[in-house]
Specification:
Helix content: 40-55%
Radius of gyration: 25 Å
Largest sheet: 6 strands, antiparallel
Number of helices: 2
Distance between the termini: 19 Å
Number of domains: 2
Order of helices and strands: HEEEEEEH
Mean pLDDT: 80
Length: 149
Amino acid sequence: MNNNNNVSIKTRITVSIPLIIVLFFISLFGLFLASIPIISFVQELNYVETTATIVDAKQEGHSTTYYPIYEFEVDGKKVQAKGFPSSSDEIEIGSTDTIHYDPKDYENFNIGSKKDGLIILGIGIMILTGTIPCLVKLIKMLKIYITGK
Protein backbone atom coordinates (compact mmCIF):
# COMPACT_ATOMS: atom_id res chain seq x y z
CA MET A 1 0.00 0.00 0.00
CA ASN A 2 2.75 2.45 0.92
CA ASN A 3 4.75 1.48 -2.20
CA ASN A 4 1.73 2.15 -4.44
CA ASN A 5 1.29 5.50 -2.75
CA ASN A 6 4.95 6.42 -3.48
CA VAL A 7 4.52 5.38 -7.14
CA SER A 8 1.40 7.54 -7.36
CA ILE A 9 3.23 10.52 -5.86
CA LYS A 10 6.23 9.98 -8.18
CA THR A 11 3.88 9.85 -11.17
CA ARG A 12 2.17 13.05 -10.10
CA ILE A 13 5.54 14.77 -9.58
CA THR A 14 6.84 13.57 -12.96
CA VAL A 15 3.78 15.11 -14.59
CA SER A 16 3.88 18.18 -12.34
CA ILE A 17 7.41 19.40 -13.13
CA PRO A 18 6.71 20.12 -16.84
CA LEU A 19 3.39 21.63 -15.81
CA ILE A 20 5.16 23.92 -13.33
CA ILE A 21 7.53 25.05 -16.09
CA VAL A 22 4.65 25.72 -18.51
CA LEU A 23 2.63 27.59 -15.86
CA PHE A 24 5.71 29.62 -14.95
CA PHE A 25 6.11 30.82 -18.55
CA ILE A 26 2.38 31.48 -18.91
CA SER A 27 2.59 33.55 -15.69
CA LEU A 28 5.53 35.50 -17.14
CA PHE A 29 3.48 36.16 -20.28
CA GLY A 30 0.57 37.39 -18.13
CA LEU A 31 2.94 39.65 -16.19
CA PHE A 32 4.32 40.99 -19.48
CA LEU A 33 0.80 41.71 -20.78
CA ALA A 34 -0.19 43.41 -17.54
CA SER A 35 2.95 45.57 -17.52
CA ILE A 36 2.54 46.99 -21.06
CA PRO A 37 -0.38 49.33 -20.29
CA ILE A 38 1.11 50.30 -16.93
CA ILE A 39 4.41 51.34 -18.54
CA SER A 40 2.52 53.11 -21.33
CA PHE A 41 0.33 54.93 -18.79
CA VAL A 42 3.36 56.17 -16.84
CA GLN A 43 5.07 57.33 -20.03
CA GLU A 44 1.93 59.13 -21.18
CA LEU A 45 1.18 61.00 -17.94
CA ASN A 46 2.24 64.29 -19.51
CA TYR A 47 1.00 63.52 -23.03
CA VAL A 48 -1.63 65.74 -24.63
CA GLU A 49 -4.74 64.27 -26.26
CA THR A 50 -5.85 65.67 -29.59
CA THR A 51 -7.43 64.64 -32.88
CA ALA A 52 -5.15 64.04 -35.85
CA THR A 53 -6.07 63.72 -39.51
CA ILE A 54 -4.31 61.45 -41.99
CA VAL A 55 -3.22 63.78 -44.77
CA ASP A 56 -0.90 61.53 -46.77
CA ALA A 57 0.68 58.08 -47.00
CA LYS A 58 4.39 57.75 -47.73
CA GLN A 59 6.14 54.68 -49.05
CA GLU A 60 9.72 54.10 -47.99
CA GLY A 61 11.96 52.43 -50.54
CA HIS A 62 10.48 49.74 -52.75
CA SER A 63 8.52 48.02 -50.01
CA THR A 64 4.76 47.55 -49.94
CA THR A 65 4.64 49.24 -46.55
CA TYR A 66 3.16 52.71 -46.24
CA TYR A 67 3.35 55.17 -43.37
CA PRO A 68 0.37 57.43 -42.72
CA ILE A 69 1.24 61.09 -42.24
CA TYR A 70 -0.81 62.61 -39.44
CA GLU A 71 -1.51 66.31 -39.10
CA PHE A 72 -2.52 67.90 -35.80
CA GLU A 73 -2.12 71.15 -33.88
CA VAL A 74 0.61 71.82 -31.34
CA ASP A 75 0.53 75.25 -29.68
CA GLY A 76 -1.69 76.59 -32.48
CA LYS A 77 0.63 75.39 -35.28
CA LYS A 78 -0.15 72.54 -37.63
CA VAL A 79 2.49 69.83 -37.50
CA GLN A 80 2.89 66.53 -39.31
CA ALA A 81 4.27 63.27 -37.97
CA LYS A 82 4.76 59.81 -39.44
CA GLY A 83 2.51 57.08 -38.05
CA PHE A 84 2.94 53.35 -37.75
CA PRO A 85 3.45 51.28 -40.91
CA SER A 86 0.60 49.46 -42.60
CA SER A 87 -0.50 48.33 -46.04
CA SER A 88 -1.80 50.97 -48.42
CA ASP A 89 -5.28 49.40 -48.29
CA GLU A 90 -5.60 50.25 -44.60
CA ILE A 91 -4.74 53.96 -44.84
CA GLU A 92 -7.72 56.20 -45.43
CA ILE A 93 -6.70 59.78 -46.28
CA GLY A 94 -8.90 62.26 -44.44
CA SER A 95 -9.80 59.93 -41.58
CA THR A 96 -9.19 61.08 -38.03
CA ASP A 97 -7.76 59.34 -34.97
CA THR A 98 -7.43 60.29 -31.33
CA ILE A 99 -3.75 60.56 -30.48
CA HIS A 100 -1.69 61.30 -27.37
CA TYR A 101 1.54 63.17 -28.08
CA ASP A 102 4.54 64.20 -26.04
CA PRO A 103 4.48 68.03 -25.85
CA LYS A 104 8.31 68.04 -25.81
CA ASP A 105 8.55 65.83 -28.91
CA TYR A 106 5.33 65.85 -30.92
CA GLU A 107 6.61 63.09 -33.24
CA ASN A 108 6.41 60.76 -30.24
CA PHE A 109 2.72 59.90 -30.14
CA ASN A 110 0.36 56.99 -29.61
CA ILE A 111 -2.83 56.34 -31.52
CA GLY A 112 -6.05 55.32 -29.82
CA SER A 113 -7.77 55.68 -26.54
CA LYS A 114 -6.15 55.03 -23.18
CA LYS A 115 -9.00 52.56 -22.63
CA ASP A 116 -7.36 50.18 -25.13
CA GLY A 117 -4.63 49.46 -22.58
CA LEU A 118 -7.21 48.45 -19.99
CA ILE A 119 -8.20 45.46 -22.12
CA ILE A 120 -4.60 44.23 -22.29
CA LEU A 121 -4.18 44.87 -18.56
CA GLY A 122 -7.33 42.86 -17.85
CA ILE A 123 -6.16 39.92 -19.95
CA GLY A 124 -2.78 39.94 -18.20
CA ILE A 125 -4.40 40.02 -14.76
CA MET A 126 -6.76 37.16 -15.71
CA ILE A 127 -3.82 35.03 -16.84
CA LEU A 128 -1.95 35.79 -13.62
CA THR A 129 -4.92 35.06 -11.36
CA GLY A 130 -5.47 31.76 -13.15
CA THR A 131 -1.90 30.49 -13.24
CA ILE A 132 -0.34 31.67 -9.98
CA PRO A 133 -2.62 29.66 -7.64
CA CYS A 134 -2.02 26.53 -9.75
CA LEU A 135 1.71 27.18 -9.73
CA VAL A 136 1.73 27.60 -5.93
CA LYS A 137 -0.25 24.35 -5.45
CA LEU A 138 2.12 22.40 -7.71
CA ILE A 139 5.20 23.77 -5.95
CA LYS A 140 3.70 22.78 -2.58
CA MET A 141 3.14 19.26 -3.93
CA LEU A 142 6.74 19.13 -5.10
CA LYS A 143 7.95 20.30 -1.70
CA ILE A 144 5.89 17.60 0.06
CA TYR A 145 7.38 14.97 -2.24
CA ILE A 146 10.96 16.14 -1.72
CA THR A 147 10.81 16.76 2.03
CA GLY A 148 8.20 14.15 2.89
CA LYS A 149 6.28 16.79 4.90
